[in-house]
Amino acid sequence: MSSVAVAAGAEADNTIHRWPITPRITRWLRTKGAKQRIAGFETDRAALGVTIEEGARGHLVMTAADAPDLKEMRAGGDDAWVLWIHGGGFCWGSARDGTGLRLAAGLERPVVSVEYPLAPEARFPVAIDVCLEAYLAGVEERGPRVLLGGVSAGANLALGVLQRIRELRTAGDGPPLPLGVVALTPFGDLAGEGDSYRVNEGRDAYLRWRGQQQLFAKAYAGDADLRDPLVSPVHADWGGEALPPAIFTTGTRDLFMSDTAQIHTAWRAAGGEADLVLAEGMWHSYLSDPSLPESAALLARLLDWCESLLARG
Questions:
Q1: What's the gap between Cα 61 and its chain centre?
Q2: What is the predicted pLDDT for the residue at 71?
Q3: What angle do CA 254, 180, 134 make, to 5 degrees?
Q4: Strand partners, 85
């Protein structure tokens, strides 16, 4: 670990939440610090030279200032784009996501960041339905060369979208598979049964299971079975049609490290090509802090992986 990461981990707050996850309280809590978060996003956006445009469905399209427009991309034979799904425990966050912003700047390709409905107001499977609709509409508008990705709860939803796509294709009326899947520290086991939910409880710099992520999981899943593969992709069956290449990331102190390990193992067992990035001493979603050397290294790795995949044609 870098000295910067050691200091950041020591200053981080992973205290147990003491408030109930109700629509009224959650809506109020989302307003706390909202202006500062938006201001920070706008500062980063300007520094990275990324423009944003709100689409007809409310999703954000992030585009690097120097990126070619859609007509130029199609004329040049490279009209690839990214469908990005933000994290936040299904209850927080927005399409104004810093990781999506950095991908847009680094790849110089459009990133469509999905503004999906949050829990507890919207429970499973509403968010997956909205993300799938965004994928289908994006393929229709922008073409089939799409990278599908997300972070934390967003990675869960991305893997859910992929399952739904494969179901549609099996039924004979499905959209094209994504070129690749980027799953950053996926929240993949909403029953909290993986080993890291015990060994990394209190060790992850930001997350806890009891009194925190466990509440978010129930707020999102509602009455659904927590072991339903669309709720918890650690239980997904990835057999059948060939899988797109994927990259999974986690850290040794990530509360959800077991989720990443299980999904990566199942992906490989099903014959899929999958990279795994495991960072020593790092916590959940450390890529979200651009001040960390480990974050910069992971971003460079992700950009190289995406560019290598897109270069295959």
A1: 16
A2: 58
A3: 90
A4: 114, 150
